[in-house]
Write a structure and sequence with these properties.
alpha/beta; Immunoglobulin-like; TIM Barrel; 2 domains; eight-stranded parallel beta sheet; seven-stranded antiparallel beta sheet; 12 helices
Length: 484
């Protein structure tokens, strides 16, 4: 028996729901697809996600800037279609200004199948003109008050040679050129960087901005738990075998300290950086994500999951329903276990309480909203680390009179559609009726939860399987803060 306890009149802090600020997607051109749009709408409606970030708003396949007969031709029509859709569904862009239009690129190097150019500009003045025209256009189209609520990142992962052929000083020059062009449009539009992989360059970036009197309205960066362990290309299980239990929390705390009081936005992360990782489709990722988000919530302003959908085509576009892709949803829009974890997290209230108790694999949090107290539990360990089913006893002191309780589970037996697909022999293509059955198999199914309540103390026992998320929701009649 593992014991955890909480005093609901004790220390509490706001729960910010930083996971709802932004979610990632692969490539701007995908946003013109109907299925992409339907899945994003669902994520906004069911998970409360407010912004979306993707690569390539400046890429040639959107036609943002081309050169014809030695004249620059600017066309923001396709970008507008994307942003119009976001505004129609109540979302906003987290604008990643990338990649280099071919006509401005200083080398021929590209990345991904859609051939995104990754070099510095031949002429930084031409780049400045593009950025100024583009941002001015968006202000004209959507209004200054609206664009001030967006975020502008300069480039993507310039510390990786795959994404930037220049040196660090070339990136810093790009940032300076960009931020100056945007601030000429309006000084309150938010611009930040360095948008690095592995949380790199943050002190160097801020030092450059300070020395050159440049604004950096926020710090943005990326981190995956596989970043610091093993060799590039190694299998995920090998890499994660060496990861510390709180790797994501510790990295976020380090970046927060380096940011010198600026807001911190992690604009990419996942359970691994492998785009074909079977763990992404399994309850393992739901447990890892839930634990990570509850730990980093006090430290950052956003923790943007990469990505919301398996409609993703950096290297190729596979048709296999469960392919180990990054998404919360698979190609057909079937909710993976990690999507259901986000659904649980979205329903949490805005106040969290300190929890007493400790275990090697079990973590427990208590959150309260207007009409419910939720006890959220994970049982998680990195691959190759020991993990067993645990029975957890939870005690809540100074609890209001409960009006009943339910339990929902994500584990090998619950909210796990890949298990059913595997039992079918893993068909490569799905019929509509099979999609419906798999979506039904992904659902969270509330069951009654027994408990004991006397003299303001509520106690219950709950079993938590390996690599699982469990939510016990206790209905209460009084609004949050009105203890009975």
């Amino acid at each position: 028996m593992v014991a955890f306890s909480c005093d609901l009149q004790g220390q509490s802090t706001p729960l910010k729901h930083v996971w709802e600020h932004t979610v990632g997607s692969g490539h701007a051109a995908l946003a013109l697809r109907g299925d992409w749009q339907a899945q994003l709408r669902r994520c906004h409606d069911e998970l409360g996600v407010g912004h979306v970030r993707f690569h390539g708003i400046l890429d040639d396949d959107l036609g943002t800037l081309i050169c014809q007969n030695d004249q620059f031709l600017y066309s923001f029509y396709n970008a507008d279609l994307i942003f119009d859709f976001l505004r129609d569904i109540g979302m906003r862009p987290f604008v990643e200004l990338s990649f280099m239009p071919w006509t401005l690129a200083s080398t021929d190097k590209t990345v991904f199948h859609y051939q995104a150019h990754v070099s510095p500009p031949k002429d930084y003045g031409d780049w400045a003109t593009l950025i100024h025209k583009l941002v001015s256009h968006w202000v004209d189209r959507y209004g200054l008050d609206e664009v001030r609520q967006w975020f502008f990142e300069v480039w993507n992962e310039p510390n990786l040679t795959a994404f930037w052929t220049g040196k660090p000083e070339d990136y810093f020059r790009l940032y300076q050129t960009t931020v100056e062009a945007i601030k000429q449009v309006d000084g309150q539009i938010r611009v930040g960087g360095p948008v690095t992989a592995m949380a790199a360059w943050v002190p160097e970036f801020l030092d450059f901005c300070e020395k050159n009197n440049l604004p950096a309205d926020f710090v943005s960066t990326h981190y995956y738990p596989t970043d610091a362990f093993g060799k590039i290309g190694a299998d995920t299980v090998t890499q994660l075998a060496h990861a510390p239990r709180h790797v994501m929390r510790d990295q976020a705390a380090k970046t927060q300290q380096q940011a010198q009081g600026r807001p911190v936005y992690y604009t990419e992360w996942n359970a691994s950086s492998n785009p074909r990782d079977p763990l992404h489709d399994e309850p393992y990722t739901a447990a890892f994500v839930t634990k990570t988000l509850m730990e980093v919530d006090p430290l950052v302003e956003a923790f943007s999951f990469w990505t919301f959908s398996d409609i993703f085509s950096e290297n190729y576009f596979p048709s296999i329903p469960f392919q180990g892709g990054f998404g919360l949803l698979n190609l057909q829009g079937i909710a993976k276990p990690v999507y259901r974890a986000y659904e649980m997290l979205h329903r949490l209230g805005g106040t969290r309480f300190d929890m007493q108790g400790q275990h090697d694999t079990v973590d427990v949090w208590v959150a309260r909203g207007d009409h419910a107290i939720t006890v959220l539990l994970t049982n998680h360990a990195f691959p190759r680390h020991p993990i067993d089913t645990q029975t957890v006893q939870v005690t809540l002191r100074h609890a209001p009179q409960p009006g009943g309780a339910t339990v929902e589970r994500i584990d090998a037996e619950h909210a796990n559609p890949r298990r059913l697909w595997h039992a079918w022999g893993e068909p490569k293509y799905l019929r509509p009726e099979e999609v419906a059955r798999l979506e039904a198999a992904s659902a969270l199914l509330p069951e009654p939860q027994t408990y004991q309540y006397a003299d303001g103390t509520l106690t219950f026992d709950v079993s938590v399987a390996p690599h699982s998320v469990t939510a016990v929701t206790i209905r209460v009649a009084a609004p949050a803060g009105d203890d009975q």
